[in-house]
Amino acid sequence: xxxxxxxxxxxxxxxxxxxxxxxxxxxxxxxxxxxxxxxxxxxxxxxxxxxxxxxxxxxxxxxxxxxxxxxxxxxxxxxxxxxxxxxxxxxxxxxxxxxxxxxxxxxxxxxxxxxxxxxxxxxxxxxxxxxxxxxxxxxxxxxxxxxxxxxxxxxxxxxxxxxxxxxxxxxxxxxxxxxxxxxxxxxxxxxxxxxxxxxxxxxxxxxxxxxxxxxxxxxxxxxxxxxxxxxxxxxxxxxxxxxxxxxxxxxxxxxxxxxxxxxxxxxxxxxxxxxxxxxxxxxxxxxxxxxxxxxxxxxxxxxxxxxxxxxxxxxxxxxxxxxxxxxxxxxxxxxxxxxxxxxxx
Amino acid sequence: xxxxxxxxxxxxxxxxxxxxxxxxxxxxxxxxxxxxxxxxxxxxxxxxxxxxxxxxxxxxxxxxxxxxxxxxxxxxxxxxxxxxxxxxxxxxxxxxxxxxxxxxxxxxxxxxxxxxxxxxxxxxxxxxxxxxxxxxxxxxxxxxxxxxxxxxxxxxxxxxxxxxxxxxxxxxxxxxxxxxxxxxxxxxxxxxxxxxxxxxxxxxxxxxxxxxxxxxxxxxxxxxxxxxxxxxxxxxxxxxxxxxxxxxxxxxxxxxxxxxxxxxxxxxxxxxxxxxxxxxxxxxxxxxxxxxxxxxxxxxxxxxxxxxxxxxxxxxxxxxxxxxxxxxxxxxxxxxxxxxxxxxx
Lengths: 345, 345
Description:
The structure is a homodimer.
Chain A: H1 3-24, H2 27-35, H3 45-58, E1 72-75, H4 89-101, H5 114-118, H6 122-126, H7 130-141, H8 146-159, H9 175-186, E2 190-198, H10 199-210, E3 217-229, E4 232-243, H11 248-257, E5 264-267, H12 273-280, E6 287-292, H13 318-326, E7 330-333, H14 334-337
């Protein structure tokens, strides 16, 4: 069953239960709980910012009212909607592919960066340059039809497990963020994922996991070539970057794919800075939020901005924190703002 | 008032009138007329193909049934949704811009291709190479922010008139095709424009004229750069092609922007061949249609495929006709299939 359907069923059951409770026991409290669109959020400035923003832009009598067709919300994925540590899921996918393809490439045993991957040399992998990653992505994610790529992505997602949580990556989505997405959609918003990672990869599970259909996934992409296989047209994936949807690329990608400026944008790292900046430069009421990873017990703690350990995966720099404070972007503290992080907790 | 609103009002009035007629006069006929979703289409194989396709894919008991989220229809614009002769509207826009910008570029008086444009040298313009057009588009459509471009496009569309019809270009849309778009949307389809011309240009009027919002316009684009003006982020248009959404580019663009294979595709020239081919390569029931311009009295007649005059604007080649016949793509004859071409007729 699709996660969105599950969530809908849960919402329905909650409603029925609340209805019964209204008659039988403590009506006021039960009703309030059933009506809370963000139950995994603690009361506080972050939750308050979301709710008051939505009330403002959907209230026709409010000067900040925005018609439904312009209610666009964009979400970064890694570190904003699901776990990105110790390493991005799609990077893990590429590394797993290197191991899988190795028998066909005996030369990799002595050739970098493949040698480091095959030898699980973490120190060497931590120092991989963009060129190294481009080589790895080129051989693992290109050289096949788009349909073949979707298939191997699906297979990987169906069995690969996170090293710490021992769960599928698609189970490592943040329940509070799913609630925000649903809450926005119930209020007429279109929710988009705007990811620095591969557009096609996220499209494999975007609908099932986030309720976001393929046409609402904006991401990085490689070039494709129109070709024929057995007389049928196919799109062949080429080892050549077509669009880099990160940093300034996120604002460019939003204009390219959506053609409208978001009303709300959610991120967690320096790669999301321009997306939030571009969102905030629009008229009227806008909502810009950054997830801060400050919960080592339930998830991870990183981001030098708040004195947490430095990291190359999901960097939250001092400069980003400075801009956030200057422009009134709202920081979401995983530790303080979320009473639940994962649905299975 | 938006055209879609006008059409909605007309539909509503028709319904009310039909309702009154049901009570007062000839109920059967009036009801049939009110229920015809394609009143500008003559009965014939083209209309029949559209109606039976829609009935099939929306009927849950039919093996060809497709759920609403996968009901995607793509439409070429020039020559399929609106008039493209004697020259594409956006080319006319670029040529008008050359005249407008000329006082700031005295060197253009002696420099090709600008000299030919300023001297209205039709013979020279007819021979323009892709390089000539790239130069013209570079100086007329780039070198400004995206917002500035949308503004000048809007201004041009508000006053520029077609040389033969003496009407705004946005009035030269084909009513029968608007009916098809509406009919598909009423049946749960998402309608996309997939144009070889500029994505941003079509987005200016897509919603108003076709009922297609910006995020459902796929087209060619130039690169943009994230920059700052008065401390605010802007997207600067660069004189560099980013994506060419024509020929194979249409299939590539559909996958890139939509991520789903269309169920139905409409075109009129060789630039649409791969879009129809890619659509037809999907499983189940698909609808591929080509508009043939064979009505010199009400519109134009061109397309060597049917013995009509040859043209570089909207070429319908013998090869395209051959593939259409081989793959059972349906030809729409403007002369025979449409009892009305324009809403103002």
